[in-house]
C-alpha cells in the first residue's frame, strides 16, 4: 500500500478512535472543525479550483440552519426532512444569486458576494418569525433509527462521516470529466469553451454545490447547539472560512480540513493565552491571526498542503488505461468537398479594422496556410472562425452551414478544433488531464455521477483516448507529468493532442512550430502529413516559412487585415505583392 493511502488510513482510524480517548472539550472542538470543513470544502471547489471568490458562504450556512430550526420548532417536522427542505431552499437561493453574481468578474465578483452575504445576515436578524437578533431556541436533537445523538461524542460520528463523504465526493468530482472542466475555469475560460465546456453553466453548478455543503454544515450546527441566532452567519465568519481555505491550500481538497483544523485550534489557543499576556480581555486573537495570515501569504501562497506533500506525495488519482472501449468517430467529409468558406469576413475594434472583408475557401483533405506579417490579422481570423470573437460583418460557413454567431462550444461540436497562439494549458494538471479536456464533448456523465463515482467506465474511455493522442504526437512518456513542467515546444504539441481528442475534421493550428527545435518541427510536419492522409484538414498559421512552404497545399496571404494573395506555395514565393509586404519576416 502506498504511503498516501497508509496516511489516510491512519487519519481515519484516529478519527474513529478519538472520542474514546479525548476529553469532552476536544471532542466538541473536533465537531466544530468538521462543520467548518464542510464550508471550506465548498470554497476549495468554488474559489481555490474554480477561481470564483465568495465572502458570503456563511449566509448559506445560515439558510440551512434557519430552515431546519424554523420547520422543526414551528411545525414539528422531522429534522431529516428539513435537511432536504434546507437543500431545496439553499439551492434555489444560490441558483438565483449565482445567475446574478457570477456575471461579474474581477474585484466586482467578491464585492457582489459581500453584498448578498450582508443582506442575508441582516434578513436573519430582522425577521420576527425567526426570532430576530435573539434567535430561536428549542431546536430538537437528532436521532438515527431511535438512537439519540444527544451528546457531542455521539454527534461526532455523524459530523465526520458526512465530512469524509463530502471530501471524497469533491475528490471524485475533480478527478472526472466535469472536474477537468471545473479546473479549467481559472484562467482558461476561452480554452474550455473552445472544447465544448459551458463555462457559465458550470460556474453556477459549483456555486450551488458549495452552497449545499454550507447548508449541510448549517443543518448540523443547528441540531448540535439546538439554538440558532444570526451571529455565526455574519460577513466576519464568511471571511474566516476563506482564511481556512488559504491556510490549508486553496486548490487542495484536504486543505479544507487542514485549514479548518489549524485555524480553529489556533484561534482557541490564542483566546486562552492572549488575555493573560495582554492583561485584558478582547478579540486580540483576530489581530494575531491577521498578522500570521499576511506572513503566510508572503511565504506560502499555496497554503500549507504543499509542505505536507514534500513528505507525503499525493496519490495519483488519474490513470489512463492502455486499452479501453473505442469512442465513436465523426464521419469524415469526402475529399475535395468545400469544408470552410469565409465570405467577406470583417472584424472591427472601434476604428481599427483587424480583418477587412476577407474571403477564402478550403477543401476537405488539404493543408491551407494563412500567413502574413505581424499584425496582419491571422489570429483574429482564427478567433472569428472558432467563435471566440463575433464578426462585424460577412459570414463563415462550415460544411455548408453558417457558423458565425455560434458560441465556441457549439462550433467545436460541429468538428472544428484549435490550438492557440499563446499556449492555453492548466499547468498544475497532468499532461493527460489537459489533453482529456479536448474530449469533453465525447462524454455524457454529469456532476452527480462524477461525485458518486458512477462514471468510471466512461472516464476510462476518455483517458484512454487522451493517452492514445499523446502517444500519437510523441508525448507518451509524459502522461503524468505536470503540464507546466514541459518545455514550450512540448506544450504546443500537447495542445495539438488536446485538439485531436475532440475528433475534429478541421484542425486550426496557430503557430504550432513556435519554440520547436529542427527535429521536432520535422516530426510535427510528419504528423500533419499523416493526419492529412487520414482525411484531416488543417488550417495553419505559422511564421517559419521553410516549415510552411514544405508542408501546405495552398496559401492565403494577409496584410493589414486584407487578402493580398492566394495560391500554391511556389507561386506565392514569387508574388510581387507578397514580396512587398514582407520577405521572410512573418508573424
Short description:
The protein is built from 23 helices and 14 strands. The protein is α/β, with parallel strands linked by helices. A 6-stranded mixed sheet has the order 10-11-12-7-13-14, with helices on both faces. Strands 6-5-8-9 form a 4-stranded antiparallel sheet, with helices on one face.
What does the model show?
The protein is an alpha/beta fold and 587 residues long. It folds into 3 domains: 22-238, no CATH class; 337-415 and 506-587, 3-Layer(aba) Sandwich (Rossmann fold), CATH 3.40.50; 425-503, no CATH class. It has 23 helices and 14 strands. The chain has helices spanning 3-21, 24-49, 57-75, 79-101, 108-126, 152-174, 177-183, 189-194, 199-225, 235-248, 253-278, 284-299, 305-311, 378-385, 408-413, 431-436, 447-451, 456-473, 488-501, 518-533, 545-549, 569-573, 576-581, and strands spanning 136-137, 142-144, 147-149, 227-228, 338-349, 352-363, 367-371, 393-398, 401-402, 416-418, 506-510, 537-541, 554-559, 562-567. The strands form 4 sheets. Strands 10-11-12-7-13-14 form a 6-stranded mixed β-sheet, sandwiched between helices. A hairpin with a 2-residue loop joins β5 (338-349) and β6. α2 runs parallel beside α6. The longest helix has 27 residues, at 199-225. The two termini are 53 Å apart. The mean pLDDT is 91.
